[in-house]
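Budget justification aside, the reviewers requested a transparent look at the raw inputs and outputs of the sequence design task funded under Objective 1. We therefore reproduce one unedited record. The lines immediately below are the structure tokens for a 148-residue chain.
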């Protein structure tokens, strides 16, 4: 089985992401900062993976969206943006779940009047990966997992 074949398997990609993003989530939760040595390789790998998995358009759209968001709100985390671009290439479902969870947390904080609270984005993206991996693994157990 080649690397390209493995990259077509969403369960494999999800497991790799759960392992890769765990240190990012821990570091972001503790320090509200994620080191470039964790995010830059992921961002760089995202582009060839996006081509191999036919997620290039989504990856590029997320890149543009993150760039615009960073220009509009300078406090936006650069690490979160790099992780989002990587997730768009590797696991769009994990990205969607992570962003949804982060949005819910953000809304709850705002409703409680905590406008200055920071949200550890890598943690929510990691949880999206965990939930996505769980969904793919449960489908694989019963033989329903599509490989494209």
């Amino acid at each position: 089985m080649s690397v390209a074949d493995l990259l077509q398997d969403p369960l494999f990609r999800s497991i790799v992401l759960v392992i890769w993003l765990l240190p990012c989530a821990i570091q972001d939760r503790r320090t509200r900062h994620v080191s470039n040595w964790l995010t830059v390789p992921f961002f760089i790998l995202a582009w060839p993976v996006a081509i191999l998995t036919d997620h290039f358009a989504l990856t590029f759209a997320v890149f543009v969206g993150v760039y615009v968001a960073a220009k509009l709100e300078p406090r936006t985390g650069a690490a979160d943006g790099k992780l989002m671009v990587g997730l768009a290439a590797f696991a769009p479902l994990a990205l969607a779940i992570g962003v949804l969870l982060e949005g819910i947390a953000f809304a709850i904080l705002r409703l409680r009047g905590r406008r200055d609270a920071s949200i550890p984005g890598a943690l929510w993206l990691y949880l999206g990966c965990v939930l996505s991996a769980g969904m793919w693994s449960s489908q694989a157990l019963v033989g329903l997992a599509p490989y494209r």
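The chain has one domain: 3-141. The chain has a mean pLDDT of 87. Computational costs for records of this kind are itemized in the attached budget.
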